[in-house]
Design brief:
It is a single chain. The protein is of the alpha+beta class. It has helices at residues 2-28, 59-64, 167-180, 207-225, and strands spanning 36-37, 46-47, 50-54, 70-77, 83-90, 111-121, 127-142, 145-158, 163-164, 185-186, 188-195. It has two domains: 1-30; 34-225, no CATH class. The strands form two sheets. Strands 2, 3, 4, 5, 6, 7, 8, 9 and 11 form a nine-stranded antiparallel β-sheet that branches. It has a two-stranded parallel ribbon with strand order 1-10. The protein is globular, with a radius of gyration of 23 Å. The termini are far apart.
Length: 227
């Protein structure tokens, strides 16, 4: 009897190990669908009343991010002198290309004061949700005089026919779609930011005005940037 039970236990263990091996192989091997991005890697020359100027990728970004990461950046200005910064970061083969901006903003000297999600109705009738970081840092306005500059940094993640403002949801969708739908998202994130220039220049927008300017810009820009 003991010998029979031992034999059955060994068979069960072998079957279990086999199932684990097959599952692990399925989860870790390449998926059936071709990896493709959900963004158009070209920022328009103009968005509404804003005109864009190309910005170079910084040496810090080149050093930190994998070499196959693709980045496009532009600074936009309008006739009133309002300023917006926009960028798209598209992951390469290494997943660490895409991360929460909250990881790098402090390294650039910004303090994150609060965060909130903001719904945005796009010009094509669709809606997305973006994450907004309300940030600040000291700047020297003239020798010996320092003031606090506020800024709003909005971003969202774009996969293959999916968007989310949540880093946790992005990770969940990555695993879920890879396992269930055999789809491998090549994630990107789009970021639009602007300084709050009230008190820094004549006619500068206050915080609510800056937020409206950013959401209006995203409303026009997002349909042109997402597949």
């Amino acid at each position: 009897m003991f010998s029979t039970q031992s034999y059955l236990v060994r068979i069960a263990v072998v079957i279990l190990l086999g199932a684990i091996t097959v599952t692990a192989f399925r989860f870790t091997t390449s998926v059936n669908s071709v990896t493709e991005g959900g963004v158009i890697m070209e920022l328009p020359a103009t968005i509404a009343q804003f005109s864009g100027k190309e910005q170079a990728v910084s040496e810090g970004e080149k050093y930190v991010l994998p070499k196959d990461t693709v980045i496009v950046k532009k600074t936009y200005t309008d006739p009133k002198g309002d300023i917006l910064n926009a960028q798209i970061v598209l992951a390469g083969a290494e997943k660490r290309s895409i991360h929460r901006p909250e990881l790098c903003l402090p390294a650039q000297g910004w303090a994150i004061n609060r965060r909130q999600t903001i719904p945005v109705t796009l010009s094509n009738g669709r809606s997305i949700t973006v994450m907004a970081d309300f940030i600040s840092r000291p700047v020297e306005v003239r020798p010996g005089v320092t003031r606090t500059l506020e800024s709003i940094y909005c971003y969202w993640f774009v996969g293959n026919q999916v968007t989310t403002s949540s880093h946790a949801m992005r990770l969940f969708l990555t695993s879920w779609d890879r396992i269930i739908h055999r789809k491998n998202h090549r994630w990107a994130y789009i970021a639009v930011s602007a300084p709050v220039l009230e008190g820094f220049k004549q006619g500068g927008l206050d915080l609510p005005g800056t937020q409206r300017m950013i959401t209006d810009f995203i409303s026009e820009a997002a349909p042109k940037l997402m597949n």
